[in-house]
Amino acid sequence: MATSNATPEDAPGEPDSARSEGVDATTTAIAAIIDPLIENEKVIAAGFAERARLLAELHRLGEQPAIIAGLRGDPVETGADDPDTHAHGPAWDDVELAERTLATEVAGALRLHSTTARMMIFNAAHLVEKLPGFHTALAQGRISWAHVLRMQDVTTGAPDDVLTALEAAVLPKAEKLTATQFGRVAARELERLHPVSLQERADVGATLRRVVLQPDVDGMAWLNAYLKADEAQAGYDRLTRIAKSLNDADTNDGADGAAPAGDVVLRTMDQRRADAFRDLLLDGECVGGLGRGIRGTVHVTVPVLTLMGKSFEPGMLEGYGPIDPETARRLAGTAPRWDRILTHPETGCMLSVGRDSYTPPADMKRYTEIRDQTCQGIGCNRKATNSEIDHTVPWNKGGPTATGNLVHLCKACHRLKHQSSFSTRQSPTGALTWTSPGGKTYTREPANPIGPPPRRAPAAPPSPPSPTREDPPPF
């Protein structure tokens, strides 16, 4: 076989023209996607800019006296003519009434929580009125919505008199940097311009510390804490150190004569860190013993067939939603108390006491808690156990104390119903329909509907006996 002394440099290659044609074809194919993608991003940015303009216009609308007058509810229900209504809190002033009512209007239209909608309106007004350069750049597609969100985060609480200089200094950088990179640059620039020291701002920020529970999918949820940066970092570091000390490979393997523990399930660092966090919260104690003996409480509704292991129907965790049957059975097995919730007449739970009593009996209250699960306000998710029971048709207007006229509303949604021009009506199943000042209707179905038992069809009359051979034919 003949051999060759050719080196790679000597190897024949593609002609320059062929390589150029290949490069051009690749460039053309990629550009055919990237160029429309760039234009699409500009359209999306313009859409966000238009939404901000509309929300800012709604904010200005809520400052007009004629509009505010139209947002007020019935004088009796607002408490202006009825001292009893002050049980729902003192009447809101014009600003509070307009902000809450219009935020709920937006929440219903965009399927949001009213707090989220209210923040959107505030941020939109802030962008349009105080950062007009960023709003224009967004409308023109020169920056993205992510850049605007970073700018809003950076300028939260910043004095108005530094915003013009800050915007002029950082807007050109926003057009060149990623949102994350831009956020760091803007924060440094604001620090240079801010008239209040970082220490003073940190002291104020510490007053906003809080814990937030955010449900997720697949039976999971997020538990987030807003803390001072050093404390959050120290806490995370402690969890990491604990997680590193939890070596799953040390699980008993039977070498000491004991029965093997079975297959060792090796956890990732994230899983061990999460387990340490959970164990400290559920079983640990704070400094000085604070928290000793205190345990969290959850309310779970478990179908009886699931409890018996004969059904895979999920349980319902109050304030969250469906949970897997295994978890539901485990929680049920450790429950210190049970409430048997069926429907009348099986339980004897009174579904109505008519006009005999304003306050619902305990079993009726628990019945509606399990039915509603959460506040039935537009977009609201506060637990029913942390909410108030409202008569949909007010008691002072003849409304009965009955499950078909009772619904859970948190204090804010309860006050909104009584003090604004929103109106509600309720179906026999508990579904609550809100009608907004803008004429829109939004219906909240019960999270865990417990309907009345189906009516049984009347028993058919007994059939006449079949004729026998001994019976004469009916001539």
From TrEMBL:
Pfam families: DUF222, HNH
Domain named HNH nuclease: residues: 363-415
Residue stretches of biased makeup (Polar residues): 420-438
Region (Disordered): 1-24, 420-475
Molecular function (Gene Ontology), one example: zinc ion binding
Domain of life: Bacteria
InterPro entries xrefs: DUF222, HNH, HNH_nuc
Pro residues biased stretches: 449-467
Family: Belongs to the Rv1128c/1148c/1588c/1702c/1945/3466 family.
Stated name of the protein: HNH nuclease domain-containing protein
Organism: Cryobacterium arcticum
